[in-house]
């Protein structure tokens, strides 16, 4: 057996098989161009916080109101995360305990709706999320989900149609936000509709929380009753979630998270969230957020110049959704070929997609990870060229071309070390 790597000595000694997989993943993340918009690189500090002895402690309840003793330090950790979230986003109340985005959204339903109530969100094939009332999700099985979409001619939300649907169906909860939305979310327009039909407006900003924190996307805080977000993606924190709200909803949301859905919070994740929020409050993070958007717009322009069909014609944020039908390549085929070329994307449905979700027409890409590595708008022409060559190779079955791209990608990535990865 080879000498254990210096950065994982204990793991390598205790479980060399697992350690080898971790090292392999580090190398994969280092050498490839990661374009999945929901992924990012966290800092060494976030990684360290995620692996502390806070892992050892049970802490059911909230600071000052726990069901276990020995919380002297844990209460301070959670309070630190809460206060940083409130300061960064300018909210009255924050709950940092949800295990991930889906449980956070489930807590919203538990707080504001009863089983069988009507809820409203963007349809999954149009760019929404499973937990916004889609049929295969518990939220679509336990509640009566109605969905809005986008216009076929523009790829944009038609707020006249949203208003008409909301007034007809009278949902208890309206979700705005999603997983494949390349344009700015008009929170004010959604808030007006929610007020008119008497619904609680929930802004799911999981994808754009970092952009909001960095001032690169408008904030939902003046408009939404509740804000749900993950803490990774553009926020560059650990895999966790937060709920934020106005003071009037604080007690209902807290009760929904605990004891409604969860037991003890993951204190090591809470600590890592606190670190990420501290990092996001620094001036350098504002530069990062704006660079993410600048890179995405530059990449979109370069792809358009190469004849790619982008949903809505471009992007306002970190995300680009492209329909590969004009390129005569299914999304899944393209995604797998690009992966062999060292370019990591995900295949994705596009609005009004005639193909099935597991074999859709599109791919979804984004710029959070490459921006974390220091790539700039000057590199986006190269990235677009690689994608263009990779999609062409996917259509023709040219594995040699894919191997060539992979070598070029690895060469560029070596010049831009990733945060949090071993040197």
UniProtKB/TrEMBL annotation:
Gene Ontology molecular function, alphabetical: glycine hydroxymethyltransferase activity; protein homodimerization activity; pyridoxal phosphate binding
UniProt-annotated site: Plays an important role in substrate specificity, residues: 232
Modified residues (N6-(pyridoxal phosphate)lysine): 233
Enzyme class, broadest EC rank: transferase
Keyword annotations from UniProtKB, A to Z: Amino-acid biosynthesis, Cytoplasm, One-carbon metabolism, Pyridoxal phosphate, Transferase
Domain Serine hydroxymethyltransferase-like: 11-387
GO biological process, one term: tetrahydrofolate interconversion
Catalytic activity reported: (6R)-5,10-methylene-5,6,7,8-tetrahydrofolate + glycine + H2O = (6S)-5,6,7,8-tetrahydrofolate + L-serine
Cofactor: pyridoxal 5'-phosphate
GO CC aspect terms: cytosol
Protein EC: 2.1.2.1
Pathway the protein contributes to: Amino-acid biosynthesis; glycine biosynthesis; glycine from L-serine: step 1/1; One-carbon metabolism; tetrahydrofolate interconversion
Location of the protein in the cell: Cytoplasm
Binding, (6S)-5,6,7,8-tetrahydrofolate: 124, 128-130, 247
Function: Catalyzes the reversible interconversion of serine and glycine with tetrahydrofolate (THF) serving as the one-carbon carrier. This reaction serves as the major source of one-carbon groups required for the biosynthesis of purines, thymidylate, methionine, and other important biomolecules. Also exhibits THF-independent aldolase activity toward beta-hydroxyamino acids, producing glycine and aldehydes, via a retro-aldol mechanism. Thus, is able to catalyze the cleavage of L-allo-threonine.
Family from the record: Belongs to the SHMT family.
Subunit details: Homodimer.
PANTHER family membership: SERINE HYDROXYMETHYLTRANSFERASE
Protein name: Serine hydroxymethyltransferase
Organism of derivation: Streptomyces purpureus
Gene: glyA
């Amino acid at each position: 057996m080879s000498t254990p790597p210096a950065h994982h000595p204990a793991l390598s000694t205790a479980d060399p098989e697992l350690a080898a997989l971790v090292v392999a993943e580090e190398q994969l993340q280092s050498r490839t161009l990661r374009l999945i918009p929901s992924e990012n690189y966290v800092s060494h500090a976030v990684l360290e916080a995620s692996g502390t002895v806070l892992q050892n402690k049970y802490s059911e309840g909230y600071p000052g109101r726990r069901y276990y003793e020995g919380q002297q330090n844990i209460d301070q950790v959670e309070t630190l995360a809460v206060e940083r979230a409130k300061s960064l986003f300018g909210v009255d109340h924050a709950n940092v305990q949800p295990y991930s985005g889906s449980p956070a959204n489930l807590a919203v339903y538990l707080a504001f709706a009863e089983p069988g109530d009507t809820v409203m969100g963007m349809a999954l094939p149009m760019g929404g999320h499973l937990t916004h009332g889609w049929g295969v999700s518990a939220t679509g099985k336990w509640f009566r989900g109605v969905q809005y979409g986008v216009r076929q001619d523009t790829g944009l939300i038609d707020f006249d149609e949203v208003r008409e649907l909301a007034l007809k169906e009278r949902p208890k909860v309206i979700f705005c936000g999603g997983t494949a939305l390349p344009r700015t979310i008009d929170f004010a327009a959604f808030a007006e509709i929610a007020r008119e039909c008497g619904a609680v407006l929930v802004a799911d900003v999981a994808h754009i929380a970092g952009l909001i924190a960095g001032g690169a996307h408008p904030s939902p805080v003046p408009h939404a009753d509740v804000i749900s977000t993950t803490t990774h993606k553009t926020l560059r924190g650990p895999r966790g979630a937060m709920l934020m709200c106005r003071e009037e909803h604080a007690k209902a949301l807290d009760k929904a998270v605990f004891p409604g859905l969860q037991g003890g919070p993951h204190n090591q994740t809470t600590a890592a969230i606190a670190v990420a929020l501290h990092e996001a409050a620094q001036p350098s993070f504002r530069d990062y957020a704006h660079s993410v958007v600048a890179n995405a717009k530059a990449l979109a322009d370069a792809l358009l110049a190469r004849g790619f069909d982008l949903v809505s014609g471009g992007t306002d944020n970190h995300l680009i959704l492209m329909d590969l039908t004009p390129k005569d390549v299914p999304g899944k085929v393209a995604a797998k070929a690009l992966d062999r070329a060292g370019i990591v994307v995900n295949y994705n449905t596009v609005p009004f997609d005639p193909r099935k979700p597991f074999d859709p027409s599109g791919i979804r890409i984004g710029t959070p990870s490459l921006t974390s590595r220091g790539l700039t708008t000057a590199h986006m022409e190269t990235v677009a060229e690689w994608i263009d060559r990779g999609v062409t190779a996917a259509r023709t079955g040219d594995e040699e071309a894919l191997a060539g791209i992979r070598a070029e990608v690895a060469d560029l990535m070596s010049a831009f070390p990733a945060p949090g990865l071993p040197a």
